[in-house]
Amino acid sequence: MQFSSRLPIAVHILLCIVEFDGKYKTTSSFLADSVNVNPVIIRKTLGQLRDAGLVHVEAGVGGASLAKDPADITLLDIFDAVECADTELFRFHENPNPACPVGRTVHAVLDGRLADVRRAMEDSLRAVTLQSLIDDMEHKLET
Amino acid sequence: MQFSSRLPIAVHILLCIVEFDGKYKTTSSFLADSVNVNPVIIRKTLGQLRDAGLVHVEAGVGGASLAKDPADITLLDIFDAVECADTELFRFHENPNPACPVGRTVHAVLDGRLADVRRAMEDSLRAVTLQSLIDDMEHKLET
DNA sequence: CTTGTTGTAATAAAGAAGGTTACAACACGC
DNA sequence: GCGTGTTGTAACCTTCTTTATTACAACAAG
């Protein structure tokens, strides 16, 4: 199992929006060229980021811009925007046998623990701001 | 995105092995009946748990047993056994444009952060032992 | 040697991810 | 108003992953 590349792609997009602000119009095809995926994928991802209130997208004229201070955007915000935030982290096998003492209780026994795992992952994602990624990028570009 | 049900299934299997120890022979079809999946799935999962040194499986005669003290088996051990532990947690979009300053650096900027997320998840999984799940289960069965 | 079991291959079905084409709706410059 | 470039979206396809299922050789014990 693996998470899709949507989070990395979304981060790439946001970094581009910041990096090219005022220099280039960040259209879906411009971004597609940097990310190296299909422009439609960019438009879908931008749509998700827009719905989450992270970016503004100019319909018609084209181009996207940040809707919030990069210090107020965390990896968790981006993750929730592009990976379906409503589904469980772990799929559960369906209909364990209720006639079995284990089958009757696994769900109750595991659910809380798996929720803790999800929470740990979310906390870790929340600890990273877009601003810190920008700082890292600028630093790497200078050297 | 979602993790497969392999971890929940593996936990269910291990709980059954403990719960029915000395009472029933935990064959793949016996376990399949409790978990409510195909016996072949059980055999494959048991094979992964065996390869990870967590259980013994009796070829021919049938049945499985724990290979370690339940207090020494963590959710991380089980997770690593049944989910491929060698792949990255997040897939990365391939070949970002090296002619772009962002494309050139995203990988270096994100890799460390995503590794931190994985570590947080692993720490959280490591914090749960099979023994604690057994205790939970016994408690729930009593009431 | 019969019986029940494991290990494993082969195949199928269903779902998710990403690619691609197509086109209506939109906003701006002229 | 009209052409141009862009976004939003639908539709379809391919590939990969997950799970189910059938089949059968290898194995252990009575």
- By CATH, the topology of chain A is Arc Repressor Mutant, subunit A
Fourth-tier CATH superfamily name of chain A: Winged helix-like DNA-binding domain superfamily/Winged helix DNA-binding domain
The outline of chain A comes out as elongated
* Biggest sheet, spatial arrangement of strands of chain A: 1-2
Assign a percent range to the helix content of chain A: 55-70%
Are there runs of chain A of 5+ residues with pLDDT below 50, and where?
none
Report the average pLDDT across residues of chain A: 93
The portion of residues forming beta strands of chain A comes to under 5%
Distance between the termini of chain A: 36 Å
Task: Describe the 3D structure.
The structure is a homodimer of 143-residue chains. With 143 residues, chain A is mainly alpha-helical. Chain A has a single domain, classed as Orthogonal Bundle (Arc Repressor Mutant, subunit A), CATH 1.10.10.10. Chain A contains 6 helices and 2 strands. In chain A, α4 crosses α5. In chain A, 36% of the residues are buried. The mean pLDDT of chain A is 93. Chains A and B meet through α1, α2, α5 and α6 of A and α1, α2, α5 and α6 of B. Chain A binds a DNA duplex (30 and 30 nucleotides) through α3.
